[in-house]
Amino acid sequence: KQEVTQIPAALSVPEGENLVLNCSFTDSAIYNLQWFRQDPGKGLTSLLLIQSSQREQTSGRLNASLDKSSGRSTLYIAASQPGDSATYLCALLSGGQNFVFGPGTRLSVLP
Amino acid sequence: KAGVTQTPRYLIKTRGQQVTLSCSPISGHRSVSWYQQTPGQGLQFLFEYFSETQRNKGNFPGRFSGRQFSNSRSEMNVSTLELGDSALYLCASSLVLRRENTEAFFGQGTRLTVV
């Protein structure tokens, strides 16, 4: 059974810092990994999708990497802004037809 | 291109009642999945439909059911509501071509409160 953890659970940084969010998973037989952000009380917004054959994906200030052999993915956010404050979740598509989600990292970027 | 639409956005129900939630996927997407999100359990998978067939089901009691129509719109139903069913219910749609590039797009959710 796929299990996903995210470290840290919460993070508070001053504006302008570069930061890294971590996602770990137990079963490396995945099809893809997706990073989402969620604002309080809202739905999930897709940020990046990394297919199993890929090592990383980039979108603007965001860069996500995937290392299946070690069961890890990282989301790198460059030059953080207050608008980046949200909960960030990683999710994996493996054997079944559903994504398995991590518990999320709650990020606060202070002006 | 319209996103995933969930209705209603908010619901308040009484214990013992039943509720139906609706999800309209992105045009052309044939896969619809439902998730329950609570502060204690995080995001948990309920079920997934593809071309009107339930392909996968999570570990929820039989009070939770769903269906998908020929236009890919989906509904989920919860009968005999319990206080613990209070949650944000999220729907996701996907254009499934190959597993590797299956990307989930979520709606804004339905906030269900059971009193």
Structure description:
The complex is a heterodimer of chains A (111) and B (115). Helix content of chain A is 0%, strand content 58%. Chain A is mostly beta strands and 111 residues long. In chain A, the strands form two sheets. In chain A, strands 2, 4, 5, 9, 10 and 11 form a six-stranded mixed sheet that branches. In chain A, strands 1-3-8-7-6 form a five-stranded antiparallel sheet, with no helix packed on it. In chain A, a hairpin with a 5-residue loop joins strand 4 and strand 5 (44-51). In chain B, the strands form two sheets. In chain B, strands 2, 4, 5, 6, 9, 10 and 11 form a seven-stranded mixed sheet that branches. A four-stranded antiparallel sheet of chain B has the order 1-3-8-7, with no helix packed on it. In chain B, a hairpin with a 2-residue loop joins strand 5 and strand 6. Chain B starts with a strand and ends with a strand. Chains A and B meet through strand 4, strand 5, strand 9 and strand 10 of A and strand 4, strand 5, strand 9 and strand 10 of B.
Distinctive features:
heterodimer; A: 111 residues; 11 strands; 0% helix; B: 115 residues; mainly beta; 7-stranded mixed β-sheet; 4-stranded antiparallel β-sheet; 52% strand; globular
Main beta sheet of chain A, described? 6 strands, mixed
Order of helices and strands of chain B: EEEEEEEEEEE
Count of helices of chain A? Answer: 0
Helix content of chain A: under 10%
The overall average pLDDT of chain A, rounded, is 94
The span between the termini of chain B is 37 Å
Biggest interface, CB < 8 A? A-B, 26 and 28 residues
Structural class of chain B: mainly beta
